[in-house]
Amino acid sequence: MKTIDSTPKKDGFRMPGEFEKHLGTYIIWPERPDNWRLGGKPAQKVFAEVAREIARFEPVTVCVSNCQFANARHMLPDEVRVVEMSNDDAWIRDCGPTFVSNGKEIRGVDWRFNAWGGLHDGLYFPWDKDDSVAQKVCELERRDRYRLERFVLEGGSIHVDGEGTLVTTEECLLSEGRNPGMTKEDIEETLKEYLGIEKIIWLPKGIYLDETNGHVDNIFSFVRPGEAVLAWTDDKNDPQYEISKAALDVLERERDAKGRKINIHKLYLPAPVLISADESGGVDAVDGTLPRNEGDRLAASYANFYIGNGAVFFPEFNDPNDAAARELLKHLFPDREIVGIYAREILLGGGNIHCITQQVPAPLAD
Amino acid sequence: MKTIDSTPKKDGFRMPGEFEKHLGTYIIWPERPDNWRLGGKPAQKVFAEVAREIARFEPVTVCVSNCQFANARHMLPDEVRVVEMSNDDAWIRDCGPTFVSNGKEIRGVDWRFNAWGGLHDGLYFPWDKDDSVAQKVCELERRDRYRLERFVLEGGSIHVDGEGTLVTTEECLLSEGRNPGMTKEDIEETLKEYLGIEKIIWLPKGIYLDETNGHVDNIFSFVRPGEAVLAWTDDKNDPQYEISKAALDVLERERDAKGRKINIHKLYLPAPVLISADESGGVDAVDGTLPRNEGDRLAASYANFYIGNGAVFFPEFNDPNDAAARELLKHLFPDREIVGIYAREILLGGGNIHCITQQVPAPLAD
Predict the structure, then answer these.
(1) Is the pTM of this model over 0.90?
(2) Looking at the predicted structure, is the pLDDT value of residue B366 above 70?
(3) Which of A2, A78, A139 sits opposite B83 (nearest CB)?
């Protein structure tokens, strides 16, 4: 693997939309007992289910620490590839590479990772193993990479339409814990250079109480160029209402890189999901790691789905709105199977299906 | 990756000769300071040279612990793939998978590994990380495997001609530290089942003072079916003379699986190589690991070469016989480049180029 001293834009590369064809999907196996209850066992079952479901549609690789290797191999189906990889936690959307393509070849973009805020408001310390995940995935795939030593970004804080448009949130990208020395314009310039982007749309905030400083991938997702979903509630007493409304206002006002208005579909949230006493009690209390307290509201959202080859994998919460979410996705993705996975155990760790997956796009356009 | 509950012979698989076409080569990065002097730095340079040379001919993957990942990536050329893999030492010939082929597909044979003798006379403890290397390589290659939970074998203790013949040593395979509950016939049966072999030729011993209990790959190697080299000395005062003579007697008497006499070429050994005070002083002294004492004779042999696609990689010792070894190999492999690598640093760790490499054969015969 070569580390390239240029930028994707200069080299003619762009980040494909998630809905474009994949070579496969990467996942990291969850294990840290100060984030995942009961030593990670309940979460591991759900991660294994996610891996199994995606593997029906495209090759899946699960990265796992040496300590958990034998257990992961045992819990995962044969068709999933299991490879050793040290990690600090299981969010490969955020610490993994962002692949870019020139239509013939793909390369990885390896952002600096600092656990969602570093020493300012990061969620754990240290994060050095996570920060080498992107490089290691590029090695496994025999793909060259661009490395940004000085620019912090997580994959979950951006969504692209593959045609020059990127959507992100001010709450995250302008946060003190990311790139405090950079102006909004500096950040735009970096995103444009490293993702082959022309136009950036800034939503004010992400989902209420999202511990990532409001990652866009929990509130918004492109369905295809010019079409997207936005997490929504009609309950004006919920703090989420103002957040979703402000996002909608931006999206209705803005145009994408091609000058199109983006057609926005409201994806209704489940009722607030709170951590139970039992769930809180199963997590190791460790200084310096975000605690999981009884009664805390989790950032539950159907927008945290993952688009794979021929399917969409979305989180279910055993909520009446599960069915409405499925119906909307079925309508928006008529050519894909809609796979619902009961994902409370992923949510308890601080994210959802999109956060725990990372696509490797196919280099060749179909 | 699936673990198959059958045997290669039953499934129509056989171990190809090393001289048959490869998909690539695996190497493990050396680091343990109780075996490699000066924290492994001199050995790492030579391993990097071996990787670089082989990578001129076929894809090379270097497996490395998380601690050494950044250093290995820095020291290795871009074209070599670097992947994380926990290990106890760097001998992938012995702890890696032995691949078998049915002409369409390859699978790994994953022998039990016990550090060359387990608690009886093994060279270090523990060896659990090494024992999972074969499985992890199969995962990386997306190849199914046969696992022998109860049969100990190292890849360096066997050589095959790809046409039904296997050569090994009694010193190793009948040693107390391997499979003491099994008779010679039991062992033959297992080798035949798991390597698709018809005929086993037993040399009495390997190279004098070889710490592996006399691995065959340091004294003998097939060049092609019906043709092989044997490490040799004319010095009757050297204990090696009787060993090589006894091996030659067996090889001249025996026939291979196809009924052929094997044409044996004498590959003259270098003069005895002894550990210097300086070299000994650079190794951590740790109870339970084989010490590296000043003046100890090392098992130096040119037979420890590796055959790759289009090339042969052989160890040089800065000895007058280096040139003779090169000439003989040039004569025996007229269609391959003969690449000599000054390999004293590998030898100081207890093996040589063949011991640190493992081929992945191409599934399709050319």
Answers:
(1) yes
(2) no
(3) A139
Is A67 annotated in the active site?
no
- Name residue B255's amino acid: R
Residue of B nearest to A143 (CA): B81
Is residue B69 less than 8 Å (CB to CB) from chain A? yes
- How many folded domains does chain A comprise? 1
Cβ neighbourhood burial of B82 (10 Å; 0-12, 13-18, 19+): buried
- Please indicate, yes or no, if residue A262 is contained in any of the structural domains: yes
What is the C-alpha separation between A57 and B352, in angstroms, rounded?
Answer: 44
Q: Does residue B1 sit within a domain? A: no
Going from the C-alpha of A151 to that of each of A111, A137, A190, the distances in angstroms are: 6, 19, 8
Quote ipTM for the complex.
0.95
User: In chain B, positions 118-137, which contact chain A (CB-CB < 8 Å)?
Assistant: 129, 132, 135-136
CATH of residue A284: 3.75.10.10
Question: In Å, how far is B185's CA from the nearest CA of chain A?
Answer: 33
Cβ A69–B140 below 8 Å, yes or no? no
DSSP B295: T
Tell me whether residue A258 is in a domain: yes
Domain that holds residue A288: 8-361
Is residue A3 assigned to a domain?
no
DSSP assignment letter at B3 = B
Question: Is B132–A2 a contact, with Cβ atoms under 8 angstroms apart?
Answer: no
Q: CA nearest A82 in B: which residue?
A: B139
Containing B52, the helix (H) or strand (E) segment is helix B41-55
| Closest by CA position to B136, among listed B83, B94, B203, B78 | B83
- pLDDT tens per residue across span B199-211: 999 999 999 999 9
